[in-house]
Amino acid sequence: MSILPARLRRLTPTRLRDDVRLRALAVGFGLIPPRTMHSPADARVLLDAARDARRVVEIGVYEGASALALLDGLGPGAELHLIDPFGSRPDALPSGWGASEWATRRALARAVRRRGRQAPRVRWHVAHSHEVASRWEGEVDLVFIDGDHSEAGCELDWSSWRGFVAVGGRVVFHDARAGQPGGRGLPGPTAVVTRRFRGEGTPGWEIAGEADRTVAVRRTG
Ligand SMILES: C[S@@+](CC[C@H](N)C(=O)[O-])C[C@H]1O[C@@H](n2cnc3c(N)ncnc32)[C@H](O)[C@@H]1O
Fold this sequence. Notes:
It contains nine helices and seven strands; from the N terminus they run ααααβαβαβαβαβαββ. By secondary structure, the chain is of the alpha/beta class. The longest helix is centred in the middle third of the chain and has 15 residues. The site of S-adenosylmethionine has 22 residues, from helix 5.
């Protein structure tokens, strides 16, 4: 929900629309919604993977658009862990873009208040994902990998988190379908998904769903 109508927002020059400090103020005070980074088809794959999940980890939160989608899709009693170091991240965002921890936390807090008792519990980790993984305990039902988009960064997220995923649980990769029919993506996540899940694949894992830029894989054993 946002105060400024979309028609008015579209009139804003790109230079202003992308200004990190102005965006932070506008997102933080709820004047504009967090920038949407996923298509409806991406969201369907993600929310399908999140169905009935009790513990979800999102790597890469930015302004919070996909975190808000997850928040809406999860039931009360579920835990949503949000991991992002914030600031400027050349391997994760177009040049000059960046999100503010203050603004994103406020956007999520508003959504939690709106859901009231039905809201999942939100846990913040302002850090790099592999640091959080190094002190993590317990199983998770879904890990959404949308942080560092370099091949090494995406591979590190996969290798740091795959062991925590419960049998039947999912890992969802964003920006991972470059060159696939009807697909889009970036070279890093696409290379990781191609190497790990297409062709010979990884024992104990299979592709569970994919569309547009998103691939969901399921742990089978
Ligand atoms: C593409 S944006 C995430 C978009 C968000 N998932 C959405 O759909 O609204 C990438 C984010 O990943 C974060 N990031 C970069 N490296 C990271 C890392 N190692 N661990 C966690 N987050 C990281 C960046 O700060 C940035 O906010």
